[in-house]
Amino acid sequence: MHEEYEVFALKYADRNSRIRADSFLFDDDHASPHDMDYFVWVIRNANRTIVVDTGYDDKEAAQRDRTILRDPVACLADFGIAADEVETVIISHLHYDHAGKLPAFEKATFHIQAAELAFATGPCMCHDVLRAPFTVDHVCDMVKKIYSGKVLFHDGDGEVAPGISVHRVGGHSSGLQIIRVMTANGPLILASDASHYYENFLKKKLFPIVVDSKQMLAGFDTLIDLAPCPEAIIPGHDPLVRQLFPEVKGGLTPVHRLDVAPLQSLNFSDH
After folding, report:
1. What is the pLDDT of residues 140-162, one digit of tens each?
2. Dihedral sign, CA of 191, 194, 195, 201?
3. How distant is the alpha carbon of residue 196 from its chain centre?
4. CA-angle at 70, arms to 66 and 74, nearest 5°
């Protein structure tokens, strides 16, 4: 049965002390400022509301010396969604900024790649550089959800609901998955960290946190293959998303609608 959805990006944090070297390997312009936004995403229609990723909280922000503008659970509440009533959550991967609020979703079933759980609990976590983006308490929260019967594992491509599928691409993290959503405007791809910025996939630029560079590059191709056009690919952290898509709610939680035509064309000729 075919279903279509609305899709929204809710900004909960930003990090504006970064430079381009933090976003792109082998970039000629490595010293220029390069801001980063942090989002959770909402997919909804008359039949269901699905949250993609859960963000992080004040405690995690303090531990990692990160900013947080508003707790993601409060962001969802501002948008009329009670986290403890959400029935389905898709976790793109288990890095701290995507899986830091799992306990708040008490009723939810979580969709994750089996490879991501294996990676986050396996031998690779013996290496500081590989475990740095993970927080052990978040990983343990996911293990608790498994033991509560609240996790559905995917091995590659899988369907979450009619019109919503997940696709493993790896690269940034071993079990990173992207989400393809059918909308009235055609398929939309929530890339999460398969492409932090538009520039990553458009110019084949590796993000510095990379487990498998070959997978990351292949993931850029997968994004393009699954999308009808580049504007239908939504990067995980690019502030440009908020310029390209209309704001539907301001205030403490800026919300931008993604399942509509962009306000302007995607042009990187000056980059």
Report:
1. 999 999 999 999 999 999 999 99
2. negative
3. 9
4. 140
The Cα 175–Cα 90 span in angstroms is 13
Q: How do strand 36-44 and strand 49-52 relate by DSSP bridges?
A: antiparallel
Whose CA is closest to 174, among 96, 115, 214, 92? 115
Tell which residue, 168, 209, 181, has the closest CA to residue 21: 209
Distances in Å between the Cα of 110 and the Cα atoms of 155, 169, 184 are: 14, 18, 26
Helices (H) and strands (E) in the chain, counts: 8, 13
Q: What is the pLDDT of residues 164-193, one digit of tens each?
A: 999 999 999 999 999 999 999 999 999 999
For 70-80, write each residue's pLDDT tens digit.
Answer: 999 999 999 99
- pLDDT for the residue numbered 268: 64
What predicted TM-score, i.e. pTM, was given to this entire model? 0.96
Cβ–Cβ < 8 Å for 173, 95: yes
Of 232, 247, 199, 160, nearest in space to 35 by CA = 199
Is residue 181 within 8 Å of residue 226, measured between CB atoms?
Answer: no
Structure confidence at residue 250 (pLDDT): 82
